[in-house]
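pasting for the record
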Amino acid sequence: MSKSLPHRPLRPATLLVRGGTNRSNHAETSEALFLTSGFVYDSAEQAEATFTGAEQHYQYSRFGNPTVAMLEARLAALEGAEACRVTATGMAAVHAALLSHLKTGDRMVASRALFGSCHWIVSTLLPRYGIQTEFVDGTDLAQWESALSRPAALVLLETPSNPMLEMADLPAVAALAHQAGAIVVVDNVFATPLLQKPLTLGADVVVYSCTKHMDGQGRTLGGAVLGSKKWVDEVLQPFTRNTGPALSPFNAWVILKGLETLALRVNAMGRSAAAIADFLSERAEVDRVLYPFRADHPQHALAKRLMSGGGTVVTFDLAGGPGGAPGGAKEAAFRFCNALRIIDVSNNLGDAKSMVTHPATTTHMRIGAEERARLGITEGTIRLSVGLEDVADLIDDLAEALDSAGAIDSRAAE
């Protein structure tokens, strides 16, 4: 019994609060939580009609649920997608997007700058099923051209990438992929749907970890896959229904409430991230700062063309230890992390609380030293997810930790 929204286009902040709302006959203000595994029918005939598709009726929460459906509708409206299906985690979303589309004998191409678990799926899991995979440097259009000069079924990339914030020329890659017969799947977690719209840039499918900015308060896990109605209904949905990576109604409800403040949080976190990137660039203990909207970012012009903001993550490299001793950068990185008093050490991101992680020993540990070197991840690399604390307090915390990181160990100096 919800009022229908105006037919005119609505802005993101409005969609984040109102999109997809479907009130029950009780006319509740907040979205209702339908914490149920199944549904009942008026008759055996209605049950049969539901299973044949002749009648629309909820069957089982693994297939669909009113709370989950509201989240899917809200995300689709925000993304500008025809359809959305949510999953239990972000990795379930990536896995479903790939395995629902690919089959034995297919070939896919991926940017090597992927989150560690995504890298494992492409490098290790898919070949087990007879799917050929090829990695390219996502920033090198010539490598994309070479890899996509032959037929392919799917292209996967992150832009900006985790953790080095590399930008890929998505429109150019998408054009090459479509010529090769591939669909383009983009992990848009770092940009969020507020700062980048991959579907308008040539992508066919967008995936998210809703655990990150969408919940944004460290409470629940969730994922989302968005694309055309035809692809979602005919390719993705049979896979998710029968393999079961369903999002619980409770988690869907939590993420729905998180979306209401997404624009406020992402905008505030982005402003703080930009200020922190500038601060870090002035510190002698920092060798390199990566932030897409800084002029010294390697793909700064591309980032400004594809994104409306620089995002909430800053990545930087600490200088090595005293005298450049082996392991000095890792020592400095650990000393820095351990000296922080406000910012938490955690491998999550997009949270209201600021967090740092050391990718070489956490999120990207299992891809190996050689692959990390190709990606530019050093023993001194730190990924900082900027939260909602006062930016002055964050800068003070970083300054004190950098003082500790840069301090010469008295034992090493002897």
